């Protein structure tokens, strides 16, 4: 199906980011966001990423998010591990496994699942296409049974650099 939403949700947001090198190869990133929007009210989000290279063409990332806002019951959270592998500079694949939920809901673990994303450069050096396939086991209430849900999708990404946007020295 297709869902088109034309509503406007004005917001104000500020972010702070910091990273640390852990050992010779590992990277720990932290991001704190504070925001206000008409839809979600006042909120705060915290994200941690830990990355470790695996060989010369692969990377493992563990990502964890925690969000509090006026629309959330307790804390909205998710965590997952992704293995990225680059075949060439133009082609890559990512394997993901994760879980998410809200701490004060009837079912604190709302969903868990896995996915595979294949990514390839297309037509231009800045244009990428993605094919995504996944499976999840959602549950919203205690009365619900977890039933398998299959997902298939595609996406496109256009990458911009500071040079493309006219940002940088002398601008």
Put simply, the count of helices is 0
Spatial sequence of strands, sheet with the most strands: 1-2-3-4-5-6-7-8-9
Low-confidence stretches: none
What does the largest sheet look like? Answer: 9 strands, antiparallel
Q: What's the shape?
A: globular
Order of helical and strand elements: EEEEEEEEE
Please give the alpha-carbon distance between the first and last residues. 44 Å
User: Mind telling me the C-alpha Rg?
Assistant: 19 Å
Number of strands: 9
Helix content: under 10%
Structural class: mainly beta
Overall pLDDT, averaged? 88
Q: Tell me what portion of residues adopts beta-strand conformation.
A: over 45%
Question: Overview of this structure, please?
Answer:
It is a single chain. The mean pLDDT is 88. This protein is mainly beta and 171 residues long. The protein has no helices and 9 strands. Strands 1-2-3-4-5-6-7-8-9 form a 9-stranded antiparallel sheet, with no helix packed on it. The chain has strands at 11-22, 26-37, 41-54, 58-69, 76-86, 91-102, 109-121, 127-136, 149-158.
Main traits of this protein?
171 residues; mainly beta; 9-stranded antiparallel sheet; 0% helix; 62% strand; globular
Summarize the structure.
With 171 residues, the protein is mainly beta.
List the helices and strands and how they pair.
Blueprint: E1 11-22, E2 26-37, E3 41-54, E4 58-69, E5 76-86, E6 91-102, E7 109-121, E8 127-136, E9 149-158
Antiparallel strand pairs: 1-2, 2-3, 3-4, 4-5, 5-6, 6-7, 7-8, 8-9
């Amino acid at each position: 199906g297709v869902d088109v939403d034309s509503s406007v949700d004005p917001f104000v947001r500020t972010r702070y980011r910091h990273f640390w090198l852990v050992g010779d190869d590992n990277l720990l990133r932290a991001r704190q966001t504070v925001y206000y929007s008409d839809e979600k009210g006042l909120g705060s989000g915290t994200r941690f990423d830990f990355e470790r290279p695996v060989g010369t063409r692969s990377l493992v990332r563990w990502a964890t998010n925690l969000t509090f806002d006026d629309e959330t019951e307790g804390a909205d959270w998710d965590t997952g591990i992704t293995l990225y592998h680059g075949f060439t500079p133009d082609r890559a694949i990512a394997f993901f496994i994760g879980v998410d939920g809200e701490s004060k809901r009837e079912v604190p673990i709302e969903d868990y699942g896995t996915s595979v994303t294949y990514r390839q450069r297309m037509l231009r050096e800045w244009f990428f296409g993605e094919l995504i396939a996944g499976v999840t086991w959602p549950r919203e209430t205690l009365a619900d049974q977890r039933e398998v849900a299959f997902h298939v999708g595609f996406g496109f990404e256009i990458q911009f650099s500071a040079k493309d946007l006219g940002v940088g020295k002398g601008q």
